[in-house]
Amino acid sequence: MNLKNHLIFTLYTIYGILLKVMASKGKVRGISGQYPLVQNVTVTEGGTANLTCRVEYNDNTSLQWSNPAQQTLFFGDKKALRDNRIELVRASWSELTISISDVSLSDEGMYTCSLFTMPVRTAKAYLTVLGVPEKPEIDGLTKPALEGDQITLTCITQGSKPAADLRWFRNEKEVKGAKEVNASGKTFTVRSSLNLRVDRNDDGVAYTCRVDHVALTQTTQQATEVLEVHYPPRVEIIHSLAIPQEGQYLKLECVSKGNPSPDPVMWTKDGGELPDLDRMIVEGRELTFTSLNKTDNGTYRCEATNHLGTSQAEYVLYVYAPTTLPPSTTPPLHPIPPDPTALLGTHASDPTVTGNRGTYLTNEAKGADDAPDADTAIINAEGNHAHAEEKKEYFI
């Protein structure tokens, strides 16, 4: 404390003694209801705290703010402690408000507002300083991981007060980790661990550790790591035709999934090399037949390999003649009855004949002269084959 502040503090002390002496002689009397009113304050580390002391009734008695170490900050509008962070906001007979900027954790504690009546009346306000958690870090990630590996991701954040909460997300879905809290002075170090047995479905998945804390009202503290998982390939063949026929264009695509990518792939026919490279074109993962024929029949194999393993798939090709379809393996649901109109000729319209249109009965019939209609004539014909010489052709 410099000489000036020491003199001010001494004067305030003498002033307080005089007040006591005068009060003992009955010359100063406190008014009933003269009590300072204060409120607790919570501020985030690095922020600004305003401490306000009010009195409802005051007979020109001074107000004073002091810190947790009982050092006087302001006596009325007079600054007593040399600290550039502390400023006067408002000073009157009914209010004394001061501000503390760039608040640190060391500023936390009980602050006292004193009203110099006889006896001196005080009110205490607690200043709570929230420790802002640091940006979290994720440890334990191996790049790349192998399918089947057991790994543990650990998320760490320091400097929170009170202790922060850590939450894990697999992409956007929350997953549960194991939390551990350790005190470090006035702040806390928080860890959360996540145990994983990785497979190919974890490749490219983002794991995010997010900090939840009362001091983080407008910002989000989080860290993200994207998993890279290596795994052996899996292969399948996709074909462009359901029923390949001679002369058609056919494409076989070897779809292989693996990390690292198994590129290129290898095509074989019946265990050997492709026989006709003029019509069988290999481009990347695709095998194309420009014009199918019967010689293409056989078993085609696609094989893909990376440093973790090999996978293969087969496609059996049978080329049908253009008018030949494979036999049906499904019987009809209902027997198909004979068509009664099969006995009649085809309904036709001859564009070369105008006005002559009809149905011709191609069966020969006997007794048509006696039959009332054509159907009867046909039935008669079917039932009497002995008189073939009498069969005639009718126009209906």
Tell me about this structure.
It is a single chain. The protein is mostly beta strands and 396 residues long. Among the domains are: 36-130, Sandwich (Immunoglobulin-like); 134-227, Immunoglobulin-like, CATH 2.60.40.10; 232-317, Sandwich (Immunoglobulin-like). It is 8% helix and 40% strand. The protein is built from 2 helices and 26 strands. The strands form 6 sheets. A 6-stranded mixed β-sheet has the order 2-10-9-4-5-6, with no helix packed on it. The protein is rod-shaped, with a radius of gyration of 50 Å. Residues 36-128, 136-228, 233-318 form the Ig-like domain. One of its GO terms (cellular component) is membrane. Its main location: membrane. Residues 1-23 form the signal peptide.
Task: Give a topology summary.
Blueprint: H1 3-24, E1 36-37, E2 41-44, E3 49-55, E4 63-66, E5 72-75, E6 78-79, E7 86-91, E8 95-100, E9 109-115, E10 121-130, E11 137-139, E12 145-146, E13 150-160, E14 165-170, E15 173-175, E16 178-184, E17 187-197, E18 206-212, E19 221-226, E20 229-239, E21 250-259, E22 266-269, E23 280-283, E24 286-289, E25 298-306, E26 309-317, H2 374-383
InterPro entries: CD80_C2-set, Ig-like_dom, Ig-like_dom_sf, Ig-like_fold, Ig/MHC_CS, Ig_sub, Ig_sub2, Ig_V-set
Domain Ig-like: 36-128, 136-228, 233-318
Pfam families: C2-set_2 (PF08205), Ig_3 (PF13927), V-set (PF07686)
